[in-house]
Amino acid sequence: MTLTGYNAIGQHWVKGTREAFSAIDPSTNQALDTAFFGADIEQMEQACELAYHAFRHYRKTSASQRAQFLNAIGKAIMALGDTLILRAMAETGLPQARLEGERGRTVGQLAMFADSLQRGLTTVPRLDSAMPERTPLPRADLRLGHIPLGPVAIFGASNFPLAFSVAGGDTASALAAGCPVIVKAHSAHPGTSELIAHAILSAASETEMPDGVFSLLFDSHRDIGQGLVAHPLIKAVGFTGSRAGGTALMQLAQQRPEPIPVYAEMSSINPVCLMPDALASRGTQLVDGFCTSLQMGAGQFCTNPGLVIGFDSPELERFTEQTAEKLNQTTSQTMLTPGIHSAYEAGVGKWIQSPQVAMVAEGERNEKPNQCTPYLFSTTADAFLADQALREEVFGAASLVVKCRDMTQFIAVIHALDGQLTATLHCGEHDAPADVQAILDELELKVGRVLFNGFPTGVEVCYAMVHGGPFPATSDARTTSVGATAIERFLRPVCYQDVPNDFLPEALRDGPSKPIYRLEDGVLMSYGQP
Amino acid sequence: MTLTGYNAIGQHWVKGTREAFSAIDPSTNQALDTAFFGADIEQMEQACELAYHAFRHYRKTSASQRAQFLNAIGKAIMALGDTLILRAMAETGLPQARLEGERGRTVGQLAMFADSLQRGLTTVPRLDSAMPERTPLPRADLRLGHIPLGPVAIFGASNFPLAFSVAGGDTASALAAGCPVIVKAHSAHPGTSELIAHAILSAASETEMPDGVFSLLFDSHRDIGQGLVAHPLIKAVGFTGSRAGGTALMQLAQQRPEPIPVYAEMSSINPVCLMPDALASRGTQLVDGFCTSLQMGAGQFCTNPGLVIGFDSPELERFTEQTAEKLNQTTSQTMLTPGIHSAYEAGVGKWIQSPQVAMVAEGERNEKPNQCTPYLFSTTADAFLADQALREEVFGAASLVVKCRDMTQFIAVIHALDGQLTATLHCGEHDAPADVQAILDELELKVGRVLFNGFPTGVEVCYAMVHGGPFPATSDARTTSVGATAIERFLRPVCYQDVPNDFLPEALRDGPSKPIYRLEDGVLMSYGQP
Questions:
Q1: DSSP assignment, residue A448?
Q2: A148 vs chain B: nearest CA distance in angstroms?
Q3: Which of A81, A67, A9, A1 is nearest to A34 (CA)?
């Protein structure tokens, strides 16, 4: 398959009229083949109109039809074969095994939403029976169902060019909900984006989805992305990226005549709390696990462990030393883009220059461009509490150890943190349960996921996952961008009062035949479960 | 019980230091007894600090403890007896029967949340089992539960001094979720507010809830209300009132360093669509039902039918004439406040002055102050489509009939509407099902509740209710402010990964004993249902 550099306005591939740009191989800083042409405002308008037109039909498709569409996308992605993997490698500097794993996760994610749709697990309608004889007033027949919000604009992330990009979790959950999707392609992997768009469009065609259910736009400036968020036909936004980018979109969406929800997943430093007995009983194991988690994907994971909190003690000292020893021997990895690399260098530079922070490890550095050298720093809780800048994310394989005097200070450090995607607690059987509980109580107020005796990198795609958390981890702590409940972001409830059975949505009719769970007069009923 | 005019900062009643104000009897424009002293910023700060302190304990109470608290509030409200009803009558001009009905609804609403908590229906946790043998990577044990957001600021409405005010749906659902509440009292019914606050605080004391679980503040200016929304310890806002007030709070909440959700229920004109066979087969019945719905509570219902859409026809002409005849003979009713009355007069005045709008009915007018005279107006769909001003809410007993040429124009009129709380469709057995379906399809995109062959006033408190809808009906179409799911506004999901059973929240532990539904590995399980 030859890349065209064109935009997909529904099933039509059209050349953009704005400046063209190329992808850069971050391992060489060389431009790759194919010029990608930025869409203009008129082309963006066309994509929005077409998406809205598609919405009128797409929202009426059955759960099973949408499931077929999602599965067909997965199949079409696999059919791209090595073309996809090789292009993604060149555009991101990520190794083959990682990208193949990410592809599996992307396809698995589409299959998970398809399965959830087919098993009737995506929404639970609520029905209350009519009470015509009730006094003083009769009760109507009331049925609560969910409808999709409308066309959704999605901004992919650079750090997961497959799983959080064109056919990533945002797209999969919006399509599962019944919302057409317009993706603003990330400029760091435009070729990968085009390939995936081809897969989605061929699946849409194969499963007879309406034209406009999916579009892909390249943006030479920022006005196409901003234009999508401001467009009256767009009803929600999905975004994964920087805090600055996410908050800008939040503000734009709020200033519209009709404000719309923005689901932005932004920044997180993912504290790892080390209790004394965990360090005493399995210190070496913790060092190994921590180093692996820190360096995964050159630290470019939103769940990267950027903060370690422990008690100032010989055990923590030993953990720090052993981690430093390991990291000092590690060679650097290529980062995703020159921009991410320079932001990393600047972030690390601030820590190096801070008189309150000690550098305890610095990995080796390749000769190649855009290298991420792993770092470990250390500071006191006093310094950490006094300086808000130390709590900001440094995106890459750098972490900061914070040494606390006692439990009070330990809790104060957690309390001072911004909202996070994850928090980790390592404890052993001799750690006081009351301390563990007190730390857990504080942590859960800050995060979307709390984990014991593990590491935060690696986000399972399942029913119980929460990849979210209080601001600035995300823009909306009530939601998740990974896992089955991600679909809820793109739905809203509608109550149907005394609507005749024939006019009701299928899921709300008397005696449903499709698999579904419903709450009927306060009792959960199951229909047609496989 | 003698009114004090004091603020409740938790269990402590303190005199505000700002200007005092009195309640006004709208039927006489005379000030009522008792001076209410506006809280100052420091007192607001104290209420927030106390609420946050209470939150640390309150969030850990069991569902059953919170249910007891809610039921005790209901009991304490009933114990206020006629004192409450008489004061509310004096402050609002609403008749006794209406206020007694509203009290029943308020107490019933508290009982509904209590029941929902006790039956384990408020949240459905999701559990995914560990798969230690899975390759290439094992799966952790993952459990998704819900935790309350934190202290909530609530702004009561003037039009429901009991059901949407101090102990109304917002307060009941926030307390049910585990969030402490600070109410900014509505200045139109401060005495009613103080009485209800006494009931809540006596219930809190009786059921041993932490001090600060509830506070009540009077605001002489606007800075206490705004200060609450901006306060870092406040984590969500509930509001029922005007569009201007609601959007101002939305903006304020979005500009905070940590943006928070605002659940504002604002404006709605609640279109009523009349199909030909409905008019032909039960025209007189429709006239009666419509007139009753329009004038209920002097039209001061958020679900008031402010718009009628029909086909230009002799049947619609007859409906309009008969309605006009009825309304012309109707006497006026006292409105809630001088402000609401003058806004109504101004809104009606615009319609009277519009050359495109014909006045077809004007009710009689009492000599008393602040009277709402019922009005009916009529216009063409062409005029309605051309003038955005005709789509704005006029809060009171006035409605506008829009005459459409054909189905295309009928759909265009609906399409042009802003988001609404409700839409109503009246049809008969001879109306073409395809037309009914097309209108329903268009209506459901605009509203939170669609109803057939009924009238929108009267909102049932039950599992399936949606009292919400797209902006500007509310600030967040994904939620409802009435019904059991209102509690979801004040909760967020947290995923617990490999957390030992003893440290898990009760609802997520192995083999739960309390009534609960859980989704376990994709299968809905029921535990201990009564």
A1: E
A2: 9
A3: A1
**Preferred mutation among A147, A267, A392, A463 to probe B, highest tally of B CBs within 10 A:** A463
- Which residues of B are the active-site residues? 265, 302
Q: Which amino acid is at B80?
A: L
pLDDT in tens, A294-326: 999 999 999 999 999 999 999 999 999 999 999
At B530 the pLDDT is 60
A-chain residues within 8 Å CB-CB of B98? none
Q: Which residues pair with A272 in a beta bridge?
A: A308, A424
Does B250 sit within 8 Å of A254, measured CB to CB? yes
Q: Determine contact, residues B486/B334, Cβ cutoff 8 Å.
A: no
Judge: A517–B495 Cβ closer than 8 Å, yes or no: no
- Number of neighbours of residue A488 by Cβ within 10 angstroms: 19
Which percentage of chain A shows pLDDT scores above 90?
96
Residues A65/A66/A69/A75 CA torsion (nearest 10 deg) = -110
pLDDT digits 0-9 by tens, B444-471:
999 999 999 999 998 999 999 999 999 9
Task: Write down the residue that tokens 């736009």 correspond to.
Answer: A217
Low-confidence ranges of chain B (pLDDT < 70): 530
Q: At what angle do helices B169-177 and B63-79 cross, to 10 degrees?
A: 150
Ramachandran region, residue B231 (left: φ > 0; alpha: ψ -120 to 50; beta: rest): beta
Pick from B155, B153, B166, B416: which is nearest to B307 by CA?
B416
Q: Residue A240: phi, psi to the nearest 5?
A: -130, 125
Check B498 against A433: CB less than 8 A apart. no
A349 pLDDT band, cuts 50/70/90, is very high
Chain B residue at shortest CA distance from A465: B495
Contact yes or no for A128 and B478 at CB 8 A: no
Which parts of A379-498 fold into alpha helices (H)? 381-386, 407-416, 433-444
Is A258 in Cβ contact with B437 (below 8 Å)?
Answer: no
B28: DSSP letter: T
Q: B377 forms bridges with which residues in the sheet?
A: B359, B400
Residue with tokens 């909760």: B491
B131: β partners:
B139
> In degrees rounded to 5, what are phi and psi of residue A369?
-75, 165
Q: CA-to-CA distance for B66 and B213, rounded, in angstroms?
A: 11
- From the list A124, A259, A460, which residue is nearest B140 (CB)? A460
The 10 Å Cβ neighbour count of residue A433 is 12
Q: Where are the alpha helices (DSSP H) in B234-304?
A: 243-255, 276-295
Across the A/B interface, how many CB contacts are shorter than 8 Å?
Answer: 211
Residue B429 makes CB contacts below 8 A (sequence gap 6+) with B277, B281
* Residue B94 near residue A495 (C-beta atoms within 8 A): no
Cα gap A461→A110, rounded to integer Å = 10
Could you list the beta-strand ranges (E) of B65-160. Answer: 126-128, 142-148, 152-155
Interface mutation vs chain A, best among B495, B525, B526, most A CBs within 10 Å: B495
C-beta atoms of A140 and B470 within 8 A: no
| Residue in chain A nearest B515 by alpha carbon | A523
Q: How close, in Å, is residue B478 to chain A by CA atoms?
A: 4
Q: How far does A15 lie from chain B, in Å, by closest CA?
A: 33
Examine residue A470 and say whether the peptide bond preceding it is cis (omega within 30 degrees of 0): no
Measured distance CA(A394)–CA(A354) in Å, rounded: 14
Structure tokens at A474: 């995300």
Distance (Å, rounded) from C-alpha A218 to C-alpha A216? 7
The CA distance from A522 to A467, in Å, is 30
For residues B263 and B481, is the Cβ–Cβ distance under 8 A?
Answer: yes
Query: What tokens appear for A186 in the block?
Result: 């990330």
Output the CA torsion sign for A10, A12, A17, A21.
positive
Contacts of A136 (CB under 8 A, 6+ apart): none
Residue A513's pLDDT is: 84
